[in-house]
User: Fold these one by one.
Assistant:
Number 1:
Amino acid sequence: MVSSPRLPALGTATLVVLAILAAVVAGAVVAPLAYDATAGVDGTVAVVEIEGTMAAPVAAEVEAELRNIRADDDIQAVVLAVDTPGGMPAPTEQMYKAIKRTSDEMPVYASTQSMAASAGYYLMMPADEIYVKPTSQIGSVGLNTVAPTPAPPAEGPSGPDKTGANPIEMWANYEILANTFIETVMEDRGDRLELTREEIAHAKVYPGIEAVDNGVADEIGSVEDAAAAAAADAGLDDYDIEYVSTAAEDQVILLRTDDGIVAVTDEQPSMGDVKEPTALLVHEPAIPHIDTVDSVLDAAGTADKEGETE
Amino acid sequence: MNRIVLTLGTFVIALAVIVTGAAALGVLSDQGVPDPPDTVSEQYDPALLVPDDTPGEADIQPSAVESENTILIATGFGVNDRDIRPLTNALSEGDHSVEIGEPTPDALEAADGVVIVGNAIASPDDAEHVSDFIEDDGRLLVLADGFVEYEAGPERATFDSTLGMSIEPGYVYNMEDHDFDHLRIFAESAGNDELTEGVDRVMFQTATPVSLNAGDPILEPAPGAQLSTTRAPTDLSVVERDDNVVAIGDYSFLEPENAQRADNDAFIANLADFLVEGDRETTTDEESENEEEITDEPSDGDLMAVVEQYYEGLDAADAEIVSDATHPDSPMSEPTEAELEELADYQFSIHDLEVVEVDEDEAIVEGTEVVIDPDGEEFETSIRVALRPDGEQWLIWEFVPA
């Protein structure tokens, strides 16, 4: 008969201590895994910053960033942080479509802290909710343009409309642009608006507190409030916020002149960098007058010279 | 040997499994740009967004039987020929004369109707002249410029007050019922007037309300119109009439493209009729009547005889003879009895008369005047006399510098 091995003769206390040590060693290996499993966030809310003039460079950035967001499994909700007096119709519609695609896949909330006027408001239409501060400026639904004028005969162009359409046809084209904006607002927010189509078409800019009251916006709150609401909508108890800039290298600046608004595409513009858009989605009073820009530049120039002489 | 083959075979099979698996994983992961999800935008409905862009046609047919009236048109800054061409064409086609210029007394004297476009009038003198013209049965059409109040000085107020006309600050717009744009409003007849015959609605591009103290509203904004200064509904008239004066708070409705909208063409035709159907007798009318009375051109002998008669009257100190040889509308004052008595001791005669110029309304006769004073001293002076017709006679109008 073979006898079984025997444990050394240890006391009970010693065995308890050894057990605790073994547990500590094993816990050191397993505990981080357990912490990660319980402390990790549920997902990310992307805050997409949309600022400046709504023009082609910004539109391309917004479209690309939203495409990336839709492909990113970690991002479950989006907040648009908008600050703009408006911009060009076509880039605005490009951004509107990109935002609408995104809102079809995940919660998209919008927020403005200072101004979301005209094109800026257009972008917010696919949003589930719009957050504003009490004194934010929001609205201005409509088109800026100048009355069409008849063109004198021009020799050379192959057709009469190459040098400018009949004024009545141009009026009709402008009405299409304006109607598209107005009908988009009525389609996307009509059920929440306390205003008629005609009242919206007045193109009024509302302070945030009034906008929430008449349905132009939904809630008073900050970007963080909008992010929290978007996260809750996406079912995220814990979330990260990722700020996404859409600032483009080639900025477009709008300036008011006595003859209308011009678009400048270079900080040191030549003639080719200054264009006169025929139609814009902007809140015109928010566009700086070119004289004020001159004054600022003159003052800056004077300050520079004084600095040089000191 | 078998162990080497077994080892290599195992390696190849394992490599193939790994590469194939990686390729399959690449296909499944689909790293390219994903197709954009479809979105629905029901507002992009042409039936909802696209208006009728047909420019329309204008058929401006004045009905007035009058002809050969003169219409003076005074235009303000920024008014181009094309802006008022539909009206001027209508007048021209009616065989009327269109004069473009300032409302000077001479210009008004020959005019049957006057059109003031935009800020054409500024001075108090202009206002007085036009006011006199109206009192003399002239017809006046005032086409206000809604932008002027923002850009011009207050001088125009003098003219407006002289006529009893008010131009409401602000402009009319309509968000519900308009021609493409909120500013391009429609106005409808406010009552029965010849100006709105055949007119249902008129389109104004930049209308401001106007009123005449003793006037009646002719066209009022269509329902839904609002005033810019109040943002409240308005029915203030944009066309008013006080007998021979019509005030309209816009002139861009005359532009060719706008003449084709609504019933603007019929309204323009009615305005052309209004301008030429007044009761005013102009100097042109009087001259025409005089021309009809004068059948024969005056002979040199007749003209010189009148001058000789005038001097015979002076020599005889006979006021009646002098008066008979003088045109009744002459700017010269007739010699008084006292003056003729002083001249009684002088001798007057005229020599070497020659007719140097004759046209339809004036003739010039030159000669040498000889005056012998009471002391017998003789004075010779070259004279030049203008004569004008008075009915069938030619009489002395005035002495002009030789």
Number 2:
Amino acid sequence: MRMDTARADRITAILLAAIGVIMLWAGWTMDRLEFRDIHPASIPGLLPMILGAVAMVCAVLLFVSAQDAPQAAPQGSWGAMALAALWSGVYAVLMVGALPYYVATTIYVAGFLMLFDREAPLLRRAITGAVFGIVTAGGIGVLFRYAFLIRLP
Amino acid sequence: MTGLESFASALWALMTPMALFHVAWATLLGIFVGSLPGLTATMGVALLTTLTYTMERDAAILVLMCMYVGAIYGGSRSAILLNIPGTPASAATALDGFPLAQKGRAGYAMGLATAGSAIGTLVGIFLLVMLAPPLAEAALRFGSFEFFWLALFGIVISGQLTGGSAPLKGYISGLIGLMVAMIGADGIHSHIRLTGGWDDLNGGIGLIPAMVGAFGFAEVLSVMWQAAPQMAEKTRRGARSLPRLLHLWRYKFTIVRSGVIGTLVGIIPGVGEDIGAWASYAAARRTSPERDEFGTGSTEGLTAAETGNSAVVPGALIPALTLAVPGSAPAAVLIAALFIHGIRPGPMILIEAPNFIYSVAAMLVLGTLAILIFGLALTPLFIQVLRIPRAWLMPVVFTLCVIGPYALTQRIFDIWVMVAFGLLGFAMRQMRYPVAPLVLGIILGDLLDKSLRRGLILSDGDLAPFFTRPISAAFAALIAVSILLAIPPVRRGLAARNPFARKPS
């Protein structure tokens, strides 16, 4: 799957135009603070309106000039990327804050190793992953908690 | 006190065992960060910023400067050994560095890169000391009208130069950054804008979470997406040799020219080290008698690229310190770090902290000496570091990406911001949008907004002063020319008239 194609540019252009319309509308309908008696040229919606209009112009130009990238970049593994994004997202959004930091980080690091360090057998991966996870979580946790006095999530 | 005396005094003040210890570990860490594909200078500086919250001000700035210098230099390691630039700044280095490594001259190439980086940084530091004070003094005359154009100029020129053959994508990237900057309380009336009723957005999108996401998490995803790199076979036996001074002397003009080009590119807002390296490399190729060897293992090409990218570091700090407009993405993080540590970059810096520019120059000199020592002495160690499997390195990097932004505000929301910007940054890279203008937009959005509205208040709604004041008019003309040059027919017309353009063979 490539994302540097003319089709991707056109989809981006449509999204950008939509964002532009939203910005323009939001700037136009934004409170003009008349009750504070501010200068009419200093209304908070001024720049959002301008940016919205510029975004629509850029969207049109992007749609019109959409083309495939001249040199196709070497393609990588979308599966590995998606798995890394998913696992990292689960850690950052669901585990951190819900579990104690040390536990969440140990599970994340160990899981990452088990998923991606495919050269070793499963049992060895699990053991090294767990050990590496504990060391990483302990090291980073202690550094932030006791050296930098940060209350861990 | 003259500039030179101030610089000497600042350098002397840093000659304490603790400061030198900070220089040593931070530069070494920077070289490791830069040398590992997947860890960039911006990410290194952003993550280290989160580790300096509790440090004393000067020590924190020293550590960050050394990380910056070390990481930009460190990118040459993987560029030479793996043909993968450790940082985007080293892309030009790989063109000649990797062929040299394949010929069994990896040690020599790394030595040459080290010397080039050190000299490039020193040239840049010299220009920093010479140019920053008068620039800050000139900027004291800037009013709202000039700052409006300056902010716009930064976005336009950054989009133009980082967008490459598609400047429109650079502009769009900057535009998205400006839109992001509009979220939260506005800078004049503190009116809450564009939050959709989400209270966590009232303070706006934090720069550090956004940058750690766009440069850190996005890089983790990119590394996992790419195929695992292979090290140049002949380097495994590690032939080491130092560059002879004679060779460096042969390239004296290339080195000085690349240093000056790199510094000037650094001064241009939001452009960065990679463009500095490419511009220096292109200039060297045009004038070199060995131009046919460029791309096949030219020592002159390697020297030009490394000198050019390293000279951008002090160059990028010139507008960052004097105008609060970053010359590169790592410099953008440094601006945020300076604010965190109580230094207010901008024209007032000469009044509020008159010797700070010289202190920064002295810090960069120490960082440069450190890369010279470590770069020449620890080559085998760096080769070992490059063998760390990504499955072990990336979860550690991401763990730091999570805890770093959280540490600043202790809000889980900032972790979500980091994740969102990571996904956005990855998608932008895949679609060939430069990320630097996005960051510059987030930084300059507030300045653009406040300057536009303050200017309009001062002129009672009249737009004329935006175009009639001399500095404003000059900026407006520059922006108009830049946009004109981005129009494809104009570009093609100019390229056809360019005597240096490469003819198809």
